[in-house]
Amino acid sequence: MANSSELLHFLKSDRHISAFSLDAQDILSECVQIAFRNLVSCLQGDVAAVMPQFMSEREENLDDENTRSVLQVLTSTMALLRRCRVNAALTIQLFSQLFHFVNMWAFNKVVTFPTSPHVQQGPHNICYCTKAWGVRLKTRLARLEAWAERQGLELAADCHLARIIQAAHLLQAPKYNAEDLSTLSSTCFKLNSLQLRALLSKYQSTPEEPRLPQELIENVVRVAENVADELARSDGREIRLEEDAELQLPFLLPEDGYSCDVVRGVPQGLAEFLAPLQQAGLCRMTTQPTSSGLWTIYMTHDHNNSVRSPSSMSNRSDGARCLPSHPEVQVIKLHKSASGMGLSIVAAK
User: Fold this and answer.
1) Are the beta carbons of 239 and 192 closer than 8 angstroms?
2) Other C-beta atoms within 10 Å of 147: how many?
3) Do 107 and 163 touch, CB atoms closer than 8 A?
4) DSSP assignment string, 148-193
5) CB-based contact 98:47 (threshold 8 Å)
6) C-alpha distances in angstroms, 139 versus 39, 63, 167, 190, 274?
7) Cα angle vertex 84, ends 66, 270, to 5°?
8) InterPro entries under this entry (predicted)?
9) What are the pLDDT tens digits along the chain (349 aa)?
10) CA 4/CA 30 separation, integer angstroms
11) 114 preceded by cis ω (within 30°)?
């Protein structure tokens, strides 16, 4: 995935060959997306294998066995991506998928147990809708959030763990009167009416807590119908009890942040890597002693070099390509019509 995305960026950005490599660009783009989907699927399988431990009844301890396994999967994934120099934007998209999977797995377990056939059942019947479980979940999720913050992924974690975090807050927060529930309605704004009804109806009070009146539950649900449900419908989302297994976000190929922007000179090991290809006659590598060492010298986004047409590069009698000693200045006049410039913002969600 890393190599395909890097090569695709070279082909798209190279001002001399971009227009002549469109088929290769399409193939590489599809390759990156397929690799991304397969990687997400494999890592979700690893996370699913340790989620039962995350939802274990064991009390928290200093070693934090309940969250250690999930954090190990996330940490090893981050180490792999960094070792392969995966683009940061791809890394964020991948961890968004993993955070959503954690959210989906835990949230669906809480709101549907023990009736849902879609959630893996444990050996014992556990009711997660209690104050004690709210505290446990909040503690365990806080450790995941702290890990994400150390990795620079706090925004992805905040966004895609939001529902299980708000569900945990709802379970452990005071729910004794209309004022308490009104406060919860504003702090648990990600939960729709079906999810709030399930959490509050299934909630098992402690002996010290008063039982929740059905009238108060209906009031909270009504507020969610007018706010959270309407927002979901305006975004084209269905009002469902369970979280969707798939994160409904499009895959986006990054436009920048690739290795070529930071690499200088010939990287160590590149000559050895290319040696078998040179011996097979598939490529040839020569170094230019007077080169500045920049890898973006022929790229369209390198504003230090003028953009020249292929025809201007082939005007020499010997047919060789060369750059002028001084930048060539081209003046382009744009005439704005009454209907505008024809610009649009794409994928700005």
Assistant:
1) yes
2) 18
3) yes
4) HHHTT-HHHHHHHTHHHHHHHHHHHS--SSHHHHHHHHHH-TTS-H
5) yes
6) 29, 13, 13, 20, 51
7) 160
8) Afadin, CBD_Afadin, Dilute_dom
9) 999 999 999 999 999 999 999 999 999 999 999 999 999 999 999 999 999 999 988 765 644 778 999 999 999 999 999 999 999 999 999 999 999 999 999 999 999 876 544 444 444 568 899 999 999 999 999 999 999 999 999 999 999 999 999 999 999 998 888 888 888 888 899 999 999 999 999 999 888 888 888 888 898 899 999 989 999 898 888 999 999 999 988 999 999 999 888 888 888 888 899 999 999 999 998 888 888 888 888 887 544 444 444 433 333 333 344 444 566 788 888 776 665 555 555 554 4
10) 10
11) yes
Which amino acid, 150? R
Closest Cα to residue 200, out of 108, 111, 103, 107?
111
For residue 23, what are the contacts with CB-CB under 8 A and spacing of at least 6? none
Helix axes 88-112, 162-172, angle to 10 degrees: 40
CB 227 within 8 A of CB 192: no
Cα–Cα distance for residue pair 286/296, rounded to 1 Å: 17
Burial class of residue 38 in the structure, from the number of CB atoms within 10 Å of its CB (0-12 exposed, 13-18 middle, 19+ buried): exposed
The whole-angstrom separation of Cα 146 and Cα 151 is: 9
Nearest CA-CA partner of 197 in 265, 112, 284 = 112
Output Rg (C-alpha) for the chain, integer angstroms: 27
DSSP letter for 259, please. G
**Which residue type, as a one-letter code, is found at position 158?**
D
d(CA 237, CA 243): 11
- Residue 233 near residue 239, CB atoms below 8 Å: yes
Distance CA 347, CA 251 (A): 10
